[in-house]
Records
---
Amino acid sequence: MKKILLASGDSYTDPNFISDFHPDLDTSWPMWPELLADKLDMQCVNLGKSGAGNEYIYSSLLDYITDPNLKKEDIGLVVAGWSQIQRKDYQTGQSGRWTNMRIDPHGDAFSLASKSLRYYLSFQIMCERYKLNYLQVQMINFHSDFLGGLRYGANQFNIEKEKIIKYPYDKEKDKLRVYNSILNNDYRINHKKFIGWPIAKELGGFTLGAKNSPIFPNGDLSFKISELDEHPNALGQRMIAEYIHDRLG
């Protein structure tokens, strides 16, 4: 029986991803978890969900790993493809179905960043507790989109195509507070198991899916769906899988 490659993330990971900007586009290409699993000869379990925040990503992995019916030795690798700090995840209905909001109305960038960093550390502790091989990846921008102003999505274009959701607090002050929060966790995080740490380019880190990441040269759209939709296309997904694979050791 093949080992399991367990992954979770947001729309960069979701196997059922549909482009908001190009809803008629066929986006059924394999996502990076499936491609990585093929390279490692593993069975892929992909829990990615479009729009997800870090609470969902952590919780989905926690629930799967701690399932009493699961043999921990069946898991060969766990990869968390982390999302953005401002997203709010919550469960609804009798089944506890996960859904999300684009912006958590309760908290500034510092408090939301601190909460996400606790998920990162808790994920690390959980994997080490169960002796699981794991990797963390900051897949999309941790805080900078929130602070810089979020662009409305295509399904919100009835408002105003280029309308920006402005950060409602002190941008410069909170940017420094976010950096301090990341640095205060530096000694806690296993750098060898976290691609891009310390996750902010100003601190010497990077975001794997960002336009200026090691695999997506700035301005090169050949890895992206389009100028409007910066999600990775089929080639971009292969690049992500290859980059992660080459850093597994």
---
Amino acid sequence: MGMVETTQTFYRIHGTPFGPVALLWSVHGGQPKVRRVLLSQSGISAKNIVRTFFPHSIPSSCAEIDVVTHKISAFLSGDDIQFSLDISRLDLCSTFQQEVLRAEHKIPRGRVSTYQRIARHLGNVNGARAVGGALANNPFPFIIPCHRAIRSDETLGGYQGGPRMKRTLLEMEGVSFNALGHVVIDKFFYPGRRRPRPLAAEECAVV
């Protein structure tokens, strides 16, 4: 039997090797679903982010959310964890962002792609900046491993948890770096090209 539908947002704080992580969740379609994963950042913890930006959320959890938080801890400890998208509220994202996040979710452990290659995979040869923006605002870090997208020049690019965390996560997954801090990679994920399609208005935003 599913849970009772509610518009109330709950949160679960969980300690990790990178500091506290907060999961915002609610009941949707009779099931608990993650609305956002919030990372602690320099000078502000995930708990304070919840208090500041989601003051009406309530501390609570359930068996399904507990499983996700424990998987996140294992993931951040270096375990090979694959998250299902079924636990996340992807429907809260725009159509374009959903496409980007689904493409990012397919990049396996130990591999990386670039914003440009993901854009080409989606049919947008000029969409690298829009892809970067969609990933910069990824509501589900770890569940969707946006740390596996880098710049075309093989530098890291941005990350919600900061560049040090992004590099550490990639190194734990077996990705190497040279002395200049560039990713050492023989083959990118999404190597091919696809026929371009017209850009939607939301894809033209400057990141």
---
Amino acid sequence: MILPIISIIVPVYNAEKYLHRCINSILSQTFIDFELLLINDGSKDGSGKICDEYAEKDCRIRVFHKENSGVSSTRNLGLEHSIGEYIAFIDSDDYIDKDYLKSFSLHYDFSMQGYIVHGKNDEICRYKHIVLVDKVGAELVWKGFTTSPWGKLFRRDIIKNNAIYFPCGISYGEDSVFIYHYLTYCTNAYITDAVGYHYIVYPYSLGHKKHPFEHLLMMFKLQFKYIKQLFENSRHNYLHRKTLLTLAEMMRLYQLSRIDIKQQQFLNDISIHYLNVFERMLLRSNALYNKYIGLYISINKRLISKLRQ
């Protein structure tokens, strides 16, 4: 049996309006040595039928139907059944250009390209071409690349050998946890200036929802677990930046006071370890802390977007 080079995993949930566009863009690739795994996460519309119809026409397509349990378990099921040397993720309401797969490099642990955001105003994110062979994870995180799984190519053996999966039980940020965990095992990376992924923003996207406090807290705990490994011997003080922004987000979403932060061991610990005395004093006032964060972000804007042109 000849194995495909790339396994493309597409989680599908009530996507019948956009699914044809997504699948057709994949089947139109100039790079043809791939398998397509369509994972139907208990869709209530015609998505499951659409998946089955495509599978009947193209032997590279495999379809899996499951009860609805969220995007993390859906992607994990795709990982379990994938057989390609590399893994690519595509969301069912997005689509890709015909040279998308061809633009990646098949000689690195991690490969990434830019994307176009289609929303109220289209926005192009193009990365500078670069090859990294030292402290790969720390460099990428420090430079502010997007932590969505799409737009990237992963080695399946790294995922399998190190049990890297999307965490279930949280409703936000599971992508970043997967990426950070994966990067702890990368020794090299290839970033291309190609822009072949089309990300569609809808008014009902998850980013517009307020998530349960416990979910967000768990997500940040998992992020810090892997970020600390990535920056253990790095010259960058990224944990300082991450702590500043994490506390700002938690305070903004849930109106946390300094007393609330002290009562949460994780939040209290990171504030003690990674903030300076002045910044810890600012936590007494949400308004002053938010002003400080706004100034901090403005000053560090160039660093945060260093990979982009």
